[in-house]
């Protein structure tokens, strides 16, 4: 891929993710201001459920993603992909029907509604994901970028309209999300119209192809599912032990702390098809270059915490007691970003899905043990918040260790120096407050950048060479 095209693709994804980030930030900040804490908790429960419906294709889509990464759209067998789409759609409709059937036995009207809407979201998310992976695999980033923002913009407009009309029922906000996802899915179908809109006579049962995709994709699916469970287990523990209100408050803090991940996702999206087409000997230099740049950018990005921590309690006084945990949770972006962009993207490029799965399973086991200890023994919310960072540190560090060993690179000493910077950020802001915390972190950040200035220059030179 030419540098000009690569920069253009980056600009598309960064712009679309900036729009998504702005909308997400506004929704996160506006909705809890105007609806009750319990209603916000139910809304977050719906968001929580829809986070996991992406696994209900059971690896089928992940197999397509891995097998066709770096392919050209014109080279795809359109009839084969059309048949795969029809089969996936039938499976999703059956699963949605089962979820709706289960919702009638829940007993709680609000939870039943959430489950029914989750069933609709299951179909919308996974059919859209089919098209999304095709666009990502084939490098059609402009269409992907539009698909990413069109539904979000429509959803945001509906949310603002509901607030102007003084609607405070969380069910309408969930319906607005469904409408946004529907529009996004329709546009996704349009972008892949050569595959989606074919005569039904072109359909044939491609069960062997489906089995190949399942067998290839299931390891990546479990790895991704395990990765999402790392935080999900902790959140479920909060919801089960501390209730919906506290769950909603902590979810708000987690959402704010993880906003920077939007840009990291944008970069990894563009990189994957490019890396798949690249000579594997050159990938080591690319890995080192991206690593040095990413860490410095993320550490500087932590400075965003300070204006947010100052302004948010004034804007959302009802959530003031939970926003104090931001000083512990904000470094999520460091470890989630490093794992997503470096470990996960490069493991998928080298087809180390088995290793990715092992790393995530170890991390899930740690999350499960830590949550059980806290919910049934310690019963301490601040310790549980700190444990989120600890678990993400395990995932990121273990993943980087495994990848570096396979690529015969030495990065272990860097992991420990970065850990010190993160601990200084958390401890100084938790114990000393805004002014002293900012001063200490600025001093440590400047020292880190000064000490690692040669590594940063070397990283930039690696990328220039490639």
Q: Mean pLDDT, rounded to whole units?
A: 82
The helix/strand series, from N terminus to C terminus, equals HHHHHHHHHHHHHHHHHHH
Oligomeric form of this entry? single chain
Total domains = 2
Shape: globular
Radius of gyration: 22 Å
Extract low-pLDDT stretches: none
Main sheet?
A: none
Number of contiguous helices: 19
- Report helical residue fraction: over 70%
What is the end-to-end distance? 12 Å
Helix/strand-derived class?
mainly alpha
Taken as a percent bin, the fraction of beta residues is: under 5%
Features of this protein?
mainly alpha; 0% strand; transmembrane; 466 residues
Account of the protein in words:
It is a single chain. The protein has 2 domains: about 1-205, no CATH class; about 215-465, no CATH class. The protein is built from 19 helices and no strands. The chain has helices spanning about 5-35, 35-50, 60-65, 80-105, 110-135, 140-165, 170-190, 195, 205-255, 260-275, 280-300, 305-315, 320-325, 325-330, 330-350, 355-380, 380-405, 410-450, 455-465. The longest helix has about 50 residues, at about 205-255. It starts with a helix and ends with a helix. It is a multi-pass membrane protein. Its main location: membrane. It comes from Loigolactobacillus binensis.
